[in-house]
Amino acid sequence: MEDYKRLLLNNKAWVQEKLSLRPDYFERTAGEQKPTYLWIGCSDSRVPAEDITGTEPGELFVHRNIGNMVIHTDFNMLSVLQYAVQVLKVQHVIICGHYGCGGIRTAMTRKDLGLINKWLRHIKDVYRFHHTELDQIHDSEEKIKRLTELNVIEQAHRLTDTSFVQRAWKEERRPTIHGWIYDIHTGLLKNLVKIEPGDHPHDIYEFDFDGAQ
Ligand code: CO
User: What is the pTM of this model?
Assistant: First the structure.
């Protein structure tokens, strides 16, 4: 059997399993979605958001890219964020990185990969912001792990720089921003940072919604 056909067969088995548990399983979620969480994770195939969090269809609104980045010229990420925060009114935004991330590892090298350079450059920036700490770590694997953690923390803060998040914080005291890391060796998630509504980003990123200049 060709590899891809296994996926279609799996799908039929999955439908049967869900229906055997609840005959209305799909009908219940087929209406409007009302997810509580926005998940921004890495595209890595070993970090399936729903599986590792035990969530069901309808619970997570998901965006994934290489390195779980929040880049403010990325209309894809920004559109997902705006929709999740303003329309779906999620209560939590989770940025999830993972150890063993190829994006982070490659950003630590001098390889020229063409277009991907442009994306990984933002990870190199995180290195530069934290070079004092990172340069003191001499074990290269430990250095990559720490950069992976610092990248999650940095991207969590980048979310709070957006007008969407700041406006929702001001008007509705949500969402809470979480920075997590997933260990591909143990399957465990770990909290790195939690940013509550009302926290202040650096002055230069803060918007004044009252119109004062
Ligand atoms: Co990754």
Answer: 0.95
Rounded CA-CA distance 4/2 in Å is: 6
Q: Kindly give the distance from the C-alpha atom of residue 101 to the centroid of ligand 1, in angstroms, as a whole number.
A: 4
101 carries an active-site annotation = yes
- 140-160 vs 115-129: helix axis angle to the nearest 10? 90
Task: Please spell the DSSP secondary structure of 41-92, one letter per residue.
Answer: EE--TT--HHHHHT--TTSEEEEEETT----TT-HHHHHHHHIIIIIS--SE
Domain 35-198 in CATH 3.40.50.2000? The answer is no
What is the structure's pLDDT at 2?
86
pLDDT tens digit sequence for 134-165: 999 999 999 999 999 999 999 999 999 999 99
Is residue 96 flagged as an active site residue?
A: no
- Domain segments of the chain as ranges: 1-31, 35-198
**Cα–ligand 1 centroid distance for 13 (angstroms):** 30
* pLDDT for 187 beyond 60: yes
